Inverse folding.
């Protein structure tokens, strides 16, 4: 059986990681490594300034699946999980309470855990679940799909520096769509009001004005249309085409 | 005179943002919009679930420069600053206490502020300062260089979806280097010890084993060599070459 | 049936609050109001600078017990729970992952929720569970005892400005002890070491030197001896005997 | 010259601690030990689960006053400051941005630092500054008064388990008042609104209904009346008069 490491951002007591770990355990040997519920992951990087705890925990409700709590970030959980329990064949992260779409990918702890797996040379998938308008989460359809997709990725692998970012719609999915990262943005409108003491406050509000927000070919558009969105993500942030031009004009000392 | 919005991640009372705002004010009309010192920016995205305060603050020591405190994230500071004080010609972020290099870019609040400016269609630069081995920061050389670079960018602009990420070395810089984002990683070694109560803890430790860590063409390598690193960053996370292949094998419902 | 509001500090997905709510529901009408798992309660006070969400949540696993998530502090959860779902006969908080003993009471979120109930004129009890040396929690014995104690308090009431602070030992309790708040302290010794990069760090360490640390009449001593500790707590912080003397010597303007 | 340790809750770059340290240095040998600006003090207790850094920092603008940054809580700063730089004659904490009044004392980091000094057997004073309605802080009058009060306390000492909690009004003070801890509360009213997306949110609002809120003999009332409030605080949380009665009725196993 393949070996899978399961991490997340919401903490070891989140129902999302429980659903994901249980789905993976139907076909793989699973280890859970997730943040302590009391620990606010300040940032998403690797913690190098202070040491970390890695504690087996039976009380998190994972049954026979070995589960460890880490007093650190999602990325720390992956690093410690890989180094202290053995190299897995796949790293999965989530299922996050709430979607990770568009530019939000760059500050998602769920995606950060997958990036960490990828950096260690292990195929990695991040999973996130949209809430219903009432704020509820049904993880069952997503978890079942996650198990199918994981088996496919275990068979085929992923190219270097690449991970999959998967988002599940709030209601039972109507289908699956391979998507690109959308440019959907929220910040088009500020609504200013006054609190009960008469002091001003501001909502960042408004519906999206981005051209591709309702395009099912984007992650945002697919989830909005009730589809499971599967996005191949590559972390290559350098704008290589600019290197030469920039070298020509940046001030020298 | 051009209009510049200055934001950061460390809070409005950080000496880094003061140095940056003052340097910019030598040639531009500057507005500061930065997180409240008491507010831990939980995450780096736009805050849409709760409203935000945007309070003028005279006590932060910016003299004649208008400065506003926001009880939100670095990205919130940029959104509110742009919408409530008028569209700037440039957004600058920092100077961060500590560098933002390699994969850390994806979870840096300093870079998140620049990304937000970029998303709003405004040229944006993120600035970060390495600490000396003793943990000290000298912002003077970096702030002076930031002013020169900002003027160049105001003149020439930046392509869409692109920003500059600038890191200053701990000691007075020996030169300037245009770089790519390095793949330097820290996580190659775990050192396990026992605390005074006999319980295990773990350091993520070790020197880098990445092939490009000492290459001056990377952000990490340049700063390590005592150079100012200027990296053109493009946020295009989609691995487009995989879209077709993936569509061929992801499980359908 | 009496009405009981259940809050906590660790978040709505913590197993401790589930055990407590279920135990209370055997004899009372229970409502759960607890922090959102994603929200780090920055501080323990009432949030007056920003508004709060109060969202019914079916996915937290409370079955028929109505459960609400709040994006705020433990005290916020009590205030909103009381005002939005009706005045309860009792407020209970916990079961916290980890004890709340001695001077730690003054910075415990679990106790802060009980203080809030007390301030609203409602009898209140805070419950906390010591971990085993292996870091595990067994909430069953504590939850069963909590139900018995709650019924007693519902019958007899508590004096104004007074709450009960209950701590359960790690292993099945040997008995029950009514205790005073101990003066046990940890900070008697600093252990200085060097990290893998050669930089100094410090552990606050050492066994307690406080005179009453092993006295079963203190909260700390009782739990240490394997007993359930029940401490009556009154929040009256003024050192009234000093008011006159101080008025005699504080500098006037 | 007496030795004074200065700590706070807002971080080493806050203008409040600078004002306080400088005022103390006019008559004492001062050491500053304060939280790192980047570190959100998760909780206010002593950190015993992970080690701490204690780093000299020249860049915080304290001039000749030795200043150390700690990656921990306000209480950690006091413990490390006392153990690593030598026993002071007085611990002062603040000046906090915002008041610490009434029941808020039990969850104030500024007060927690003073409690820590007190627990170590050192006289301790916590200082806090009310903001003007416009959100500004003028620390000058408070800092000057703090120096006078500190000298008085150094001469006369404080009884065991007792500290002073001092709050400065927003505008230049009209006088000084020795006060008791008030029972002022905010939570009497919930204002429910809808956000731009139509979802409900709630403000905890309303003016105080507590009987003593406008009594100048309380900390809240004094500050409200434009006076400096000096409150003697004793941390003795046990409701001793209830110990016997409670022992008579708590359920035994």
């Amino acid at each position: 059986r393949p070996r899978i490491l399961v991490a997340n951002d919401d903490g070891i007591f989140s129902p999302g990681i429980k659903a994901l770990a249980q789905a993976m355990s139907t076909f793989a040997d699973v280890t859970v490594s997730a943040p302590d519920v009391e620990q606010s992951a300040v940032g998403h990087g690797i913690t190098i300034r202070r040491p970390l705890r890695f504690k087996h925990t039976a009380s998190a409700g994972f049954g026979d699946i070995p589960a460890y709590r880490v007093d650190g970030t999602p990325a720390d959980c992956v690093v410690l999980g890989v180094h202290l329990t053995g190299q897995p064949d796949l790293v999965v992260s989530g299922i996050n309470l709430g979607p990770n779409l568009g530019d939000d990918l760059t500050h998602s702890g769920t995606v950060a855990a997958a990036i960490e797996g990828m950096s260690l040379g292990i195929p990695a998938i991040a999973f996130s679940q949209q809430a219903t308008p009432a704020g509820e989460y049904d993880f069952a359809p997503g978890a079942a799909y996650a198990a199918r997709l994981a088996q496919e990725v275990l068979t085929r692998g992923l190219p270097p520096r690449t991970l999959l970012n998967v988002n599940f719609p709030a209601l039972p999915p109507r289908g699956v769509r391979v998507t690109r990262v959308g440019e959907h943005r929220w910040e088009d409108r500020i609504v200013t009001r006054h609190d009960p003491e008469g002091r001003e406050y501001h909502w960042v509000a408004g519906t999206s004005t981005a051209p591709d927000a309702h395009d099912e070919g984007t992650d945002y558009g697919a989830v909005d249309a009730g589809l499971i969105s599967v996005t191949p993500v590559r972390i290559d942030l350098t704008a290589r085409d600019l290197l030469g031009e920039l070298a020509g004009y940046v001030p020298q000392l």
